[in-house]
Design goal:
Keywords: Iron, Kelch repeat, Repeat. Its cofactor is Fe(2+). The chain is an all-beta fold and 328 residues long. It has a single domain (6-322), classed as Neuraminidase (6 Propeller). Helix content is 0%, strand content 51%. A five-stranded mixed β-sheet has the order 6-10-9-8-7, with no helix packed on it. Strands 11, 12, 13, 14 and 15 form a five-stranded antiparallel β-sheet that branches. The protein has a five-stranded mixed β-sheet with strand order 20-26-25-22-21, with no helix packed on it. A hairpin with a 2-residue loop joins strand 2 (25-29) and strand 3 (32-36). The protein is globular and about 50 Å long.
Amino acid sequence: MSLVQGKWIKLDQKGTGPGARSSHAITLVGQKAYVFGGEFTPRVPVDNKLHVFNIKELTWSVIEGTGDVPPPRVGVTLVAVGETIYVFGGRDYEHNELNELYSFDTSTNKWTLISSGDTGPPHRSYHSVTSDDRHVYIFGGCGVAGRLNDLWAYNVVDQKWMQYPNPGDSLKGRGGPGLLEVQGKIWVVYGFAGEEVDDVHIFDPAQGKWAQVETSGEKPTARSVFSTVTIGKYIIIYGGEVDPSDLGHLGAGKFAAEVYALDTETLLWKRWDDGLGSDHHPGPRGWCAFARGEWEGKEGLLVYGGNSPTNDRLGDIHFFTPYLENGK
C-alpha cells in the first residue's frame, strides 16, 4: 500500500525534562526514549546526563549510569541495537572533534568505552548513524580537516570496526546527511557539503559497491540536519536547514517544515499533507533529535527539540504517524 499522508501529535511532558536544546541525539528502546548531549547556547555542550522519556507515561527521568560515562558533547549520535545504546563522536567544550564509541546497557545502566584513538572512525561531529540488528553504521560529518564521506560499521556481535570502500568524488564530504538502512542497503540522503545538496547515494554492503541514484517526483529542495526515518520501503524526511546562516553554527538559517517520503523502489518523492500550520504541527526547524518509534501501536518519527528560525532552542516533542491508503 502507498503512504499518502500522515499526522503530527504533540506529546505532553510530565515532570522536569532536559529542556530546550539542539544538536543532541535520541534513540528508543521499547517505550523509553534516551536523550544525550546537545546545546542551549550555540557550541556549548549542555550536560552529559542520560535523560529518559517514557513514551507511554509521558514522564521524564535521569539515569545515574555507572562505568565510563561520556563527557558532555554536541553533534553526537545515539542509536540502539537491541537493549544496548551506542554513542559515537561529537564535539566537546573546546570544539574538539571526538571519536570515542561508548555503549550503554539499558538493563544494567552501565557505560562502557569500546574504542577511541586510532581504533575505529576518525574524529568527527555532526555525522550520521543508523543500525540493523548486527551493525552500527557511521557516515560523514565534520572531521578535523574538513567534511568527511567515509562509511564505517561496528559489528556489535564480533565487536570490530570495519571501513567500507570510499564512494569517490561523486559523494562529497558532508555534515548533517540522512543515513538510513533499507532492506540491507545503506542510503545517504542530502546533507551540507559547503552548500546544501540534494543527491542520493546507495551502498550495498554485500557487493561493497556505491551507486548514485536519480530521484524524481515532488522532490524536496536541498537541505541538511533534517529528521529522517525509514518505515518499510519509505524514507521519510521532515524539516531541515535549506539555507545556512551567514554566522555558521552560531546563527539560524532558513528551515523547512514539510514532510516528504521517498519510495526506495520507484525512487519517487512525494510531499505529504501533514497538517502544516496547525497547532499540533512542529513547524520549521532543524538540528533536532529524532528516532523511529511507536506511538499507540503505530510506527513513526519521534522529533524532540531542535533550532528554530529565530535561533531559539526548542524543547517540545512531536510524533509523526504515516497513514496507509485505507487511512489506518
